[in-house]
Amino acid sequence: MLMQIQENISLRPYNTFGMDAKARYFAAFSSADELLGLNDRISVTGNLPVMILGGGSNILLTKDQEGWVLKNEIRGVQLLHEDPDHIYVRAGAGESWHGLVMYCIERNWAGIENLALIPGCVGAAPMQNIGAYGVELKDVFHSLEALDTKKRSVVTFTLSDCAFGYRDSFFKHSEPGRYVILSVTLKLSKHPVFHVSYGAIKEELEKAGVKAYSIKAIADAVIRIRSSKLPDPAVTGNAGSFFKNPSIPATQFEVLKTAYPEVSGYPAADGTVKVAAGWLIEHSGPDENISWKGYRVGDAGVHPRQALVLVNYGKANGEAIAALASAIQSSVFLKYNIKLEKEVNFY
Ligand code: FAD
Ligand code: EPU
Fold this sequence. Notes:
Blueprint: E1 6-10, E2 22-29, H1 32-44, E3 50-53, E4 59-60, E5 65-72, E6 77-82, E7 86-92, H2 97-106, E8 131-132, E9 135-136, E10 141-148, E11 153-158, H3 159-162, H4 170-173, E12 179-189, H5 201-207, H6 215-229, E13 237-241, E14 247-249, H7 250-259, E15 265-267, E16 272-275, H8 277-282, E17 296-297, E18 300-302, E19 309-312, H9 318-336, E20 345-346
Parallel strand pairs: 2-5, 3-5, 4-20
Antiparallel strand pairs: 1-2, 6-7, 7-12, 8-9, 10-11, 10-12, 13-19, 14-16, 15-16, 17-18, 18-19
The protein binds flavin-adenine dinucleotide and uridine-diphosphate-2(N-acetylglucosaminyl) butyric acid.
Residues 16, 51-59, 72, 93, 118-121, 123-125, 127-128, 130-132, 180-181, 230, 233, 238-240, 345 line the site of flavin-adenine dinucleotide.
């Protein structure tokens, strides 16, 4: 099939920050063969960069894209195999992540209910090992298939191949654009284990009068909490948490906690403590008397209910958001001696 290639189009509808950057070449693909066909066309245009796009909910476009933007639209959800305890389900990379979560809940397949309402596509989920409310993709991951665009062959990655970490994976460090994730297979459970200890889930279930837990009730609680805290990208441009929660040595955390008893931190098995970046940002600012939380410069701002989320109120461009992000990083470093690392991918 001959794919439609568009030139010099605005990427505004394709990124949740709502950045009006342009793509020199833009095309969608719905199979590995179509992607290979596009690769042939790409080689004709010379050595231009290639960006793989899912839902555009974890990117910041800081400029017009001089190369190719390829949107993954590989669809399909398939039950591959089941045994007395597990379900193995494969989803095309272009499927909506939240759509997949709802599909599994309807069938009573447990494991991803805490990951409801995370925007974006299935194929991007392994990139940063998406996580929320005490569950990460790695907890239910079985394998994935990716096209190695250099070797032009499909490769299977197992759990250990993916080297998942907190908002991290093998793919974050591999050559940009080399591996295009085609599908992801999850190993879900027929016997739900409810993860309710994180954050406000228990409280939210009590408020809703839920006595007997179910995966549907947990997803509903997660959806309510998320909707109350996080801005809806359809209304206010954003890409979720802009920074990762930083890990610091336990000794440094003790010093911090002595100076600021209200700071939140979560100890990890390796002896480090993960500090709430939202707190660090809320409790610092452009000067001594102003907090970043709710701060706004032009149309670039920090969300008033969640300081970890940077927002575009309308016409901010990627450079303005990037400048605000680096001002936040500098002030947090100056005050707390902690480096905030970006979660969002810059292009
Ligand atoms: P994109 O933004 O399109 O792409 C992200 C990166 O992955 C890019 O580098 C892209 O090149 C690469 N990529 C995309 N698809 C493929 C593919 N098929 N093969 C290879 N590379 C690919 N994240 C969390 O972890 N937890 C949360 O709770 C969470 N909450 C959010 C809330 C809001 C309101 C928003 C806007 C974002 C949130 N995010 C969260 C971030 C985001 O939703 C996830 O990172 C999501 O997985 C991104 O999916 P996407 O399809 O939009 O990826
Ligand atoms: N906090 C503040 N002020 C703020 C925001 C947060 O003080 O403005 C403190 C509070 O003490 C709160 C703590 O930070 O108890 C944690 O806040 P929250 O529960 O909102 O979670 P988070 O650490 O800010 C992380 C993920 C989210 C994920 C939630 C729920 C990262 C970088 N972010 O946010 O993921 O949805 O936990 O599990 O790990 C994303 O990655 O894009 C994302 C939204």
